[in-house]
Amino acid sequence: xxxxxxxxxxxxxxxxxxxxxxxxxxxxxxxxxxxxxxxxxxxxxxxxxxxxxxxxxxxxxxxxxxxxxxxxxxxxxxxxxxxxxxxxxxxxxxxxxxxxxxxxxxxxxxxxxxxxxxxxxxxxxxxxxxxxxxxxxxxxxxxxxxxxxxxxxxxxxxxxxxxxxxxxxxxxxxxxxxxx
Length: 180
Description:
Oligomer: single chain
Distance between the termini: 22 Å
Order of helices and strands: HEHEEEHEHEEE
Radius of gyration: 16 Å
Number of domains: 1
CATH architecture: 3-Layer(aba) Sandwich
Structural class: alpha/beta
Largest sheet: 6 strands, mixed
CATH topology: Rossmann fold
Strand order of the largest sheet: 3-4-2-1-5-6
CATH class: Alpha Beta
């Protein structure tokens, strides 16, 4: 049995008020359909009909996993086929800058997360949401199931004295939630 994901149903789920908007998409290597098509390819299929694809953003490990080794920062580049920017949110910046958000109306987020506090994807989403709020950019999160059940909470809460990019708020080690 395959899991149905919001990203596979954009035609029905995309908000009417956001049709035609300029979209930036925050994606990583696990942003794939049940048939393993990367979300960037799926978004291309809706280009012009639902929205205008304007930029990609990538978290730790890169947009397509080009820096899979731990703690390797990466730099922005231009998408070789589409000619749009691919911004790094794990390099000089951990959140989108006003300049990065200037050319988009909506940030679509499709990140798989395992529900562990020290995975940086939730913090990238958190910082991106704050930046989008400040810039007046809408955020749409295409949620995904938590692969380690999304129910169980385990471990201590983060001591605020140890706040960092692997823990920005006092949540449990295994927080039992999805990224959405």
